[in-house]
Amino acid sequence: MYQRELLVSAGGNVSIRFDDGILITPSGRNKGSLLPEDMIKMSMNGKVIGKGKPSIEYKFHLGLYNARSEINAVVHCHPIYCTAIAVKGEKIRADLTPEGVMLLGDVPTVPYRTPGSDELAEEVLKISKHSAAIMESHGAIVQGRTMEEECNRMEELEFQAHLQLVVGNAAGLPRDEVYRLRRM
After folding, report:
1. Radius of gyration of the chain, Cα coordinates, nearest whole angstrom
2. Alpha helix segments (H runs only) across the chain
3. What pLDDT score was predicted for residue 147?
4. Is 121 helix (H, G, I), strand (E, B) or coil?
5. Containing H/E element for 89?
6. Which pLDDT score is estimated for 40?
7. How many C-beta atoms lie closer than 10 Å to residue 137's C-beta?
8. What amino acid positions are annotated as catalytic residues?
9. 40 pairs with which residues across the strands?
10. Alpha carbons 124 and 163: distance in angstroms, whole number
11. Hey, which of 36, 86, 128, 144 would disulfide with 134, CB 3.0 to 4.6 Å?
């Protein structure tokens, strides 16, 4: 994800659920240079197990895991095109291509709240039924069953944002086709 410029510098955070907790990226570290042993282990109630400082966004990661038992991976990034749309106050249109419809579904926008705050965690929890969202003036978030699935979903979200900025107000797929694709 770092090589694809979805994660930049120390921005963003990634977590994965395991039997009795999560592993999450550390706070303030360049994501391109992290090693497996740099990940921070946390209990599901937010206690750090071992050493290190978890990402300041750990609250919304835990909230999403607690809201949906089938979620095993959460990825939050600041990819340029998603963030550009979020800064512009626009909505991501996932109906431009079949892949957008099938991989993303409806993509809501999380209102801006201070990173790491309880208020941001509360707002993210409101979109927990969605697989992807953008975060106003902040970035993007995806969640799902596996890390591979979420890396693919984040890449698709960024592709759709880029496409949207390139094509402008182009017509999306017909409504009946969107319905058919969502059922697949």
Report:
1. 16
2. 58-67, 80-88, 98-104, 118-125, 147-167, 175-183
3. 92
4. helix
5. none
6. 96
7. 12
8. 57
9. 24
10. 25
11. 86
| Dist CA 117 CA 178 (whole Å) | 36
Q: Is the pLDDT of residue 56 over 90?
A: yes
Q: pTM of the prediction?
A: 0.93
For residues 157-181, average pLDDT: 94
Strand-pair partners of 43: 21
The token pair at 28 is: 């303030």
In degrees rounded to 5, what are phi and psi of residue 5?
A: 60, 30
Q: How confident is the model at residue 31 (pLDDT cuts 50, 70, 90)?
A: confident
Give CA–CA dist 34/26, Å, rounded: 9
Q: Are 24 and 50 in contact (CB under 8 A)?
A: no
Comparison of pLDDT for 50 and 86, the residue scoring more: 86
Asked if residue 55 has pLDDT above 90, the reply is: yes
Dihedral sign for Cα atoms in the order 118, 115, 94, 155: negative
- Rounded average pLDDT over 122-134: 97
Pair 86, 160: CB distance under 8 Å: no
Tokens of 109: 């926008």
How far is the C-alpha of 135 from the C-alpha of 139, rounded, in Å? 5
Joined tokens for residue 151: 């890396």
Tokens 């990634």 found at: 14
CB 100 within 8 A of CB 160: yes
Say if residue 115's pLDDT is above 80.
yes
